[in-house]
């Protein structure tokens, strides 16, 4: 029997960063440490590179996150054994940031998976012999600005074809195959139908469990063909001064018991809310948590209802997406256009043209090449 623990996104910034600099590790994760100590092996998602020296941040959409080497000391303090690196911030400080992070992890004797100096190494499978069983770990993430290539560093991309070959290989070599994915809609507590289809496919071809994080909120789970799929763990330790008493501040750890049949247990917690730490939920909050999980699981189990919930969520937020398609460069004009106060100049013909470039794989190849070429020439 093997006891595994998987945690979500760890990004030690704001108040947590200040405590780390003072090496007040027990104040941050002291309450969680005894749980991790009971496990045979534990993993955490390192949601940012380790950057000590001045390194130019990568030009990208969204914030550039980083942490100091002391953050790795905190990871070791609570006895995590492995960090997953396939996420949308791993390449925030370019190849140099990746190299620095990997060197520190190696120096600290921490296992890692999902990131590397190039695609070949980023997509490598991590094998661990634990209690007489061989466990294979595969880690990948959705495509943003962090993806490794044949000749550059970064994260292992979500690519069901490549994951198929990896899972088949791992199944032939290991007793259990665990998939950890970083993806999903931020602040949406359900998987998209696309996610469910892919994660179930991973089980179909041999995965024994699939665990997802990224959305900054927890989601539900399902047991598909006797294999658990967790669609969102939530933030593990990710302080943000604009987020208090929200779904940002709640999450859960997953304990997997690998035996003849896979069992699991959840550890719900509150993170970086009133205080910059991670604490287990009290009894009254736990009851509310499991009630919420039950509702989410019921939706996940009903594909038609899941599709409707996903469409409803997207419909409510279509104004934000309209900003991307807006012809205006001025911020205020773009906001006014997204609210219908200014014309978008998106004719039916123009919409069909855009859809064609998005739907058709060959056309999409051309658009991606053009945008990447423009970035290289700037």
UniProtKB/TrEMBL annotation:
CDD domains associated with the record: MPP_CapA
Origin superkingdom: Bacteria
Domain called Capsule synthesis protein CapA: residue spans: 3-240
Gene3D superfamilies listed in its UniProt record: 3.60.21.10
Xref: InterPro entries: Capsule_synth_CapA, CW_Biosynth-Accessory, Metallo-depent_PP-like
Family statement drawn from the similarity comment of this UniProt entry: Belongs to the CapA family.
Alphabetized PANTHER family for the sequence: PGA BIOSYNTHESIS PROTEIN CAPA (PTHR33393:SF13), POLYGLUTAMINE SYNTHESIS ACCESSORY PROTEIN RV0574C-RELATED (PTHR33393)
Protein name per Swiss-Prot or TrEMBL: Capsule biosynthesis protein CapA
């Amino acid at each position: 029997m093997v006891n595994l623990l998987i945690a979500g996104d760890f990004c030690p910034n704001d108040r947590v960063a200040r405590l780390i600099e003072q090496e007040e590790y027990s104040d941050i994760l002291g309450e969680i440490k005894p749980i991790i100590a009971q496990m045979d092996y534990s993993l955490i998602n390192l949601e940012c590179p380790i950057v000590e020296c001045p390194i130019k941040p990568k030009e990208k959409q969204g914030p550039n996150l980083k942490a100091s080497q002391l953050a790795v000391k905190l990871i070791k303090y609570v006895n995590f054994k492995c960090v997953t690196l396939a996420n949308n911030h791993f390449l925030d400080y370019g190849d140099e940031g990746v190299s620095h992070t990997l060197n520190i992890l190696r120096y600290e004797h921490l296992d890692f998976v999902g990131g590397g100096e190039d695609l070949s190494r980023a997509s490598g499978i991590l094998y661990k012999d634990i209690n007489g069983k061989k466990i294979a770990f595969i880690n990948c993430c959705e495509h943003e600005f962090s993806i490794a290539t044949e000749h550059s560093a970064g994260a292992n991309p979500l690519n069901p074809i490549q994951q198929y070959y990896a899972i088949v290989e791992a199944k032939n070599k290991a007793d259990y195959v665990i998939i950890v994915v970083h993806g999903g809609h931020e602040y949406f507590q359900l998987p998209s139908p696309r996610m469910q289809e892919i994660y179930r496919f991973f089980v179909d071809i041999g995965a024994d469990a699939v665990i997802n994080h990224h959305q900054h909120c927890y989601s539900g789970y399902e047991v598909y063909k006797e294999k658990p799929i967790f669609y969102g763990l939530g933030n593990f330790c990710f302080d943000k001064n604009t987020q208090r008493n929200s779904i940002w501040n709640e999450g859960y750890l997953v304990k997997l018991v690998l035996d003849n049949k896979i069992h699991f247990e959840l550890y719900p917690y509150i993170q970086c809310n009133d205080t910059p730490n991670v604490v287990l939920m009290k009894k009254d909050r736990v009851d509310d948590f499991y009630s919420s999980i039950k509702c989410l699981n019921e939706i996940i189990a009903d594909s038609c209802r899941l599709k409707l919930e996903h469409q409803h969520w997207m419909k409510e937020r279509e104004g934000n997406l309209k900003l991307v398609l807006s012809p205006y460069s001025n911020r205020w004009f773009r906001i006014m256009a997204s609210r219908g106060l200014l014309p978008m100049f998106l004719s039916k013909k123009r919409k069909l043209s855009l859809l064609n470039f998005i739907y058709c794989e060959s056309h999409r190849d051309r658009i991606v090449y053009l945008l990447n070429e423009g970035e290289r020439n700037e």
